[in-house]
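new request in #modeling-help
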Amino acid sequence: MTMSRRDILKSLTITAITGSVLRVIPIEAAEFAHHMVASEKAAAKAGAYAPKFFLGHDYKTLQSLCQTIIPADDQAGGAIEAGAPEFIDLITSENKDYQLSLGGGLMWLDVTCTDRYGSRYLECTADQQKEILDQIAYSKNAKTDPSLGAGVEFFALLRKFTADAYFTSEIGIKYLGYVGNTFLKEFPGCPPVPEA
Amino acid sequence: MQVARSPKVYDVCIIGSGASGGTAAKVLTEGGLSVALLEAGPPIVPERDYKEHVWPYELPHRGGGVGAKKRQGVGDEFMAPNGAWEIEGEPYTTAPGSTFRWFRSRIVGGRTNHWGRIALRFAPVDFKVRSHDGMGDDWPLSYDDVAPYYDKVESYIGVFGSKENIPSAPDGIFLPPPKMRCTETIIKKACDKLSILCVPSRLAILTQPHNGRAACHYCAQCGRGCVTASNFSSSQVMIPPAQDTGRLTMITGAMARELIVGKDGKVSAVSYIDKTTRSEKRVHARAFIVAGSTCESTRLLLNSKSTLFPDGLANSSGVVGKNLMDTVGSDGGGYFPNLEKMPPHNHDGVGGMHMYLPWWKFDRKNDFLRGYHTEFGGGRGMPGVGDWDDLCDHVEGYGSSLKQMAKKTYGTYIGFAGRGEMIPNENCYCEIDPTVVDQWGIPVLRFHWKWSDNEIKMARDMQQTYREIVEAAGGTYMTNTSPDGQHPYGLADGGVIIHEVGTVRMGERPATSALNQYCQAHDVKNLFVTDAACFVTNADKNPTLTIMALTWRASDYLMDQAKKGNL
């Protein structure tokens, strides 16, 4: 079968407008279209992302935090490779609430690190970074030390968005082991469930 | 503003193109009648509107929308553009102390582009509830009257299922059901242990080629729209054959304002706003079918006031807007450690459950009346934004431990959704808000809502049942609900289940009902209301299949009456 992308899209459009159920495109054509669109998208190399909200130093801090939340390991890359900083910068640039909570949170982190360690988060030593993150990564710490409240809230939101970006990325989906989003002639059912 | 009048007179004008309007359009045009079909929204174009098979990473917002405002729930970037909880410029109001949410669709096919394709027949007892338990009212027809039309609808649209001979869930004409997913295998085993019925679900999705449509390809993405039309929607299955007759005139972007009554007391025209030109136009016809969805149809009747019908059209009984019902909904779910050991495998299946729990306690005394069915799902679905919120809040921390925990627990959650029958009560109704209009100048609806104790007790039973099932399956129940507050036992707000019915109900007596058993207005013989507004009760069955069966029956009756010159 040789069909161009244009032919496929045209047949899809005709289906939509004239719409007879008897002219619905065959499953093979739909599958072909799907694979073609997917491979085109994969081939289109994304240009370097230009940050819109977190600029310069702030973007570097965001990258560092994302990669710390979900690091690379021997099984899969980390949050930077999964595009988490781009995703978070994009949605923050579009949402005033997140500009306050994430933008303000990043400032809180740098101010707090400067107070404690004499330098911003990014320039702190690895031990110092771990110390502050270990405090703001758990909500119970804000109960014993209310001054950590803003930091805990910031980190909780950043963690969710990093997870969003990571596990919806190509490497993240592969890491989880999601198998699907494809065309099956038959649904195979459940493989044997191991004993609990 | 210009008022344009078209001189053409159609045999029938249908308002709304969803489950009901689409069915009427097919039956009537195939029966030889000329039909004008008004739809308030635009056409749906699969090539443009469907995001089937798109991966989240192919979209910059990963499906969460601009500003991540659609992170979870209906309306993410992947969903077909099928409706919304809020529509700009088209408000509705709620009375003080009432909470009601109204999901509206403005597109060809209406909410059939969205629904779960769950296609359940009402049981015989569902039509005769008052005779059975003394509450609510009986329908003016019986299961045997509707059964031939259930047959017609199922035969045409294609519904999978299995013959089970369960009194609360009559069998239909079924295509073979798909095999069980792992999550369903586990729950089925637990239900067997507890003597709770768990059987193949009944969904309007093709497991075999059917009437020229291809079989399902098991991508689980029905909600995004299906380019092979392997699931049912009015836009892909009902409207095309109507168009093929050459007798259908589709008018999109047409927001009906008022039904115009002639001196003879019959409806002569519908006045509508052409949204593109913002002008008012009219369509003339010999008969009218109102099928704009329950509350929208109600609004149109109540806004159609005249000297002959000062309280709104077809409303001499005063019942129009009354008896508003939704489905009793309460959800719960749990974590299943044995699913952690499952190797990666394709768990997608059809876009919905392969198994479900019909109402199983129909033969015993419960502490509430009527019943509920249960939908359930979970497992290794396509990851989406928002899916890890609970994990993040629960395990907290960061680094490898967080990453590994996400992988370990992926696909180990199964959720249950109870869907039960509400009994109509005098505190649940809608009316025209005396002071608010929409952007077209059309007065809007105001909702009143209050659950009764029966619904709260039913929600409690749902929560108890789901905990028992989860624990019997070796899982941990993770839902916490409280007996009081806005959502007792997790009871969803009115309207949230999107099964609103009952506001233009049928009945034998014109004093207490608006329509006869053929959806024909007692007061106006060339007017029919065929969507779920005509329902007398809201059985624990999703309304769509019954909407289509009743519409098909009403359309046959309309054609018969037209032939006899009775309209």
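bot summary: Chain B has a mean pLDDT of 95.
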